[in-house]
Design brief:
By secondary structure, the chain is α+β, with helices and mostly antiparallel strands. It contains 8 helices and 11 strands. The strands form 2 sheets. Strands 1, 2, 3, 4, 5, 6 and 8 form a 7-stranded mixed beta sheet that branches. The radius of gyration is 19 Å and the shape is globular.
C-alpha cells in the first residue's frame, strides 16, 4: 500500500463573470492549497482486470459516484491498462465545506496512479482527464501551491503569492455547490469588466461572489466572519461555495490565539493551518 496526501484548498477570491448556456458559470478564482489533508492509500494488482475497490467512511459513496473511484476508472481507460486498484481513504476534509475534498481526492488518485505506473502522462494531460470529472479537479493534478483559475475554473495558470496562516471554522451544516451557483444572481452583466485576471497576483481582493446567496440562506456564515474579524483576523471569507469560513493571520500564534474566542462564540469546530509550502 502506497500512501499519498490529498490537500484541501481555499479560494482567495471567487468572482462569477457569466452564466453559460449549458448552465455552468465562468469564474475568476485563485486556488490555494493548504496543509490540511485527507490520506489515500493505493495498492495495485497486475491481474489483467479493471476492478476498483474503494474503502471509505460510510457517509461517502464507495462506488461510481465517488470522484476517487471515477478517477481510477478514467486513468485506466486513458492509459489502456488493465489492473485492479484498492483505494483506502482516511477522510479529514469535510464534505460540502468548500475545501475541495472530493476534487482533491480525484486529482490525488490520478497523480498517484500516474506515479505508480511509470508516469505515462504529463501533469497537463492529467489535468485534461480531471476536467471531465469536475471543475476543481484539475488544480489538484499539479504541484502548484497557487493557481489562477478562469473559464469554469479548469483553465489554470500558476501564480506566486505570499503564504498565510489560517483559522478554519466548520459550521455544522454543508452547502451544495450546485445550489449555491443556481441561486447566484449575476447583476453586473453590463459592466465592461468586474475583474482583470492579469492583476490577480497583486490586486485580487479577498472576495467571494457566492457569499451573498449562501448567507441569505445560512446567516451563520456572516456571524462566523464577524467573529473572526473581532478575534483579530486580517480578512475573513467563505471558501468556495461554503460552508467553511477562514480567517487570515500573519502568524501561527495569532491564529491559535483567535481559535478559543471564535470557538466559544460560534460553537463550531476550528483548526489552525497554513499555506501548503511543500507540494
Amino acid at each position: 500500500m502506497h500512501w499519498f496526501k490529498s490537500p484541501a484548498k481555499i479560494n482567495r477570491c471567487l468572482y462569477i463573470t457569466a452564466k453559460l448556456p449549458n448552465g455552468y458559470h465562468e469564474i475568476v478564482t485563485i486556488f490555494e492549497k493548504i496543509a490540511f489533508f485527507d490520506e489515500l492509500g493505493l495498492a495495485l494488482e497486475d491481474d489483467g482486470k479493471s476492478n476498483t475497490t474503494l474503502i471509505c467512511p460510510k457517509w461517502l459513496p464507495n462506488g461510481p459516484d465517488n470522484l476517487a473511484y471515477m478517477a481510477a476508472q478514467k486513468f485506466r481507460q486513458a492509459a489502456g491498462l488493465d489492473f485492479s486498484v484498492r483505494i483506502d481513504m482516511k477522510k479529514r476534509i469535510p464534505a460540502g465545506a468548500g475545501l475541495g475534498g472530493g476534487s482533491s481526492n480525484c486529482g490525488t488518485v490520478l497523480r498517484a496512479l500516474n506515479k505508480l505506473t511509470g508516469n505515462p502522462f504529463s501533469d497537463e494531460e492529467l489535468g485534461q482527464m480531471a476536467s471531465t470529472l469536475g471543475a476543481d479537479c484539475p488544480f489538484f493534478t499539479h504541484d502548484w501551491t497557487y493557481a489562477l483559475g478562469t473559464g469554469t475554473g479548469t483553465e489554470l495558470r500558476p501564480i506566486d503569492l505570499e503564504p498565510n496562516w489560517y483559522l478554519l471554522v466548520f459550521p455544522d451544516f454543508s452547502v451544495s455547490t450546485r445550489w449555491a451557483y443556481q441561486n447566484f444572481k449575476l447583476t453586473r452583466k453590463n459592466e465592461e469588466t468586474i475583474f482583470d485576471p492579469r492583476k490577480a497576483e497583486t490586486n485580487f481582493g479577498w472576495h467571494n461572489d457566492l457569499e451573498k446567496p449562501v448567507i441569505a440562506r445560512y446567516p451563520a456564515i456572516s456571524k462566523v466572519k464577524t467573529s473572526l474579524l473581532d478575534a483579530g483576523a486580517r480578512e475573513a471569507l467563505m471558501s468556495g461555495s461554503g460552508s467553511t469560513v477562514f480567517g487570515v493571520f500573519d502568524t501561527e500564534q495569532q491564529a491559535q490565539g483567535a481559535m478559543e474566542k471564535v470557538t466559544s462564540q460560534t460553537g463550531y469546530r476550528c483548526i489552525v493551518t497554513r499555506t501548503l509550502t511543500d507540494t
